[in-house]
Amino acid sequence: MNRPIQGFSKLTKREKIEWIATQYTADPEATKTVLERYWNSDTKLQQLHDEFIENTLTNFYLPLGIAPNFLINGRLYALPMAIEESSVVAAASKAAKFWLHKGGFKAEVLGTEKIGQVHFMFDGDTDTLQVFFDRIKDTLKSDAASITKNMKKRGGGITAIELRDKTADLPHYYQLHCTFETLDAMGANFINSCLEQFAQTLQREAENYEGFTGTERNIEVVMSILSNYVPQCVVKAEVQCAVEDLNIQPTVSPDEFAEKMVRAVQIAKVEPHRAVTHNKGIMNGIDAVVLATGNDFRAVEAGVHAYASKDGTYGSLTHANVKDGIFHFWIEIPLALGTVGGLTSLHPLVKLALEILGKPTAKELMQIVAVAGLAQNFAAVSSLVTTGIQEGHMKMHLLNILNQLGATESEKKMLTEYFKKHTVTHSAVVEAFDKLKSN
After folding, report:
1. Beta strand pairing status for 157-165 and 114-121?
2. Which of 4, 143, 215, 285 has the most CB atoms lying inside 10 A of its own CB?
């Protein structure tokens, strides 16, 4: 029977592996071999990885691929993508190639404002609180001067602080709603440090404010934290071409294809069940580049999906129309990204990925990532409205199935050739593999 353990974090890595293998796996020796097999032979590099998080046992690898031929604002890029899902890199590459000689992708940053909030409870008069806030607003900023000094030198810092009355949603609930410019840094630590200083100043000044009486002086700060919902930190990416140039499939006319694409996006706008999968495809491209460049894909995911619901229902993040014979396909999406700080200067592959992208600024990376999402969505929806998603996806998934079946290299080669002319399904691959083995 498994038992709780005290002081696990104080064990050495080998002791942690010994304990987890013995307590939680059927074959401890095999488990230890697997875990140690993924250690890096470069001890300094392994130590660097070990120190990224707590209680590290080993490294968990994802493939890092490249999607070439992305023409973005007149500049050619090869996009590094870290992802485990078959067909994502291929689909992005296919979309990039399609748009390469049609003007490529255009992208622009519409805003870079990031948000943080001090959430607090106040049992008193709202008008009196507003007067108090107006009096201490400059003090809030000056008390944070030591934190904002370096950011201000680079042109960033605190852009606004406002008091928001949220008592209609929750009794006695107010917030300091604060906005920031963090330039090339994602800025999470910077923003949270500012917010915690605001909270201290708020409580200190309230205790000494002559306009408050009794319990009004006892402002209760519940928490101070940045928001991953950044509806003013938005980037737009788009493609367009004459409808007659939409030669996707010989069996589907350009006019029919354009109509199907527009209808598919319209469906994703009004049907949440479709919209979730539609947007998941977008995030296949976005997350892969975000992860490869050392950014926080969980924060991006949370903010993006909240943005998809900003009009009251969950809908498509992409848009499409045909006007005057021109097909137009675009996305507007919130992306709070950074190219300095965090893993960007520590993880060797992150540094390399950013170098491959030309050492972009945060704004440039926002544009690149938005394009990756748009390209992925174009490729996915194109397949859905023509051949169907499974034909291309399953061909890319073929090697995964053969590896699961334990196929040898020669068997993989023969079956790959066979399925160039046959439809790939899991059952079809198993049947062909069994037949090959029996001959």
Report:
1. unpaired
2. 285
The single residue of 50, 85, 113, 301 carrying the catalytic annotation is 85
Place of tokens 């009196």: 128
Q: Which two tokens stand for residue 340?
A: 């300095």
71: phi then psi, degrees, rounded to nearest 5: -95, 110
Using alpha carbons, select from 70, 77, 45, 49 the residue that is nearest to residue 294.
Answer: 49
How far is Cα of residue 212 from the mean position of the Cα atoms in its chain?
A: 45
Please say if 169 is a catalytic residue. Answer: no
Q: CB–CB of 400/86 below 8 Å?
A: yes
Taking alpha carbons only, the member of 110, 118, 111 closest to residue 178 is 118
Alpha carbons 358 and 377: distance in angstroms, whole number: 25
Task: Identify whether 85 is a catalytic site residue.
Answer: yes
Q: Which of 196, 296, 347, 363 is catalytic?
A: 296
Residue whose structure tokens are 């390469």? 100
pLDDT tens-digit map of 208-267: 999 998 888 899 999 999 999 999 999 999 999 999 999 988 889 999 999 999 999 999
36 classed as catalytic: no
- The active-site residue, picked from 137, 177, 280, 319, is 280
- 259 as an active site residue: the answer is no
Active-site choice (119, 347, 363, 393): 393
User: Which region holds residue 248: left if phi is over 0, alpha if psi is between -120 and 50, else beta?
Assistant: alpha
Q: Which residue has the higher pLDDT, 2 or 17?
A: 17
Using a pLDDT cut of 90, give the percent of the chain over it: 83
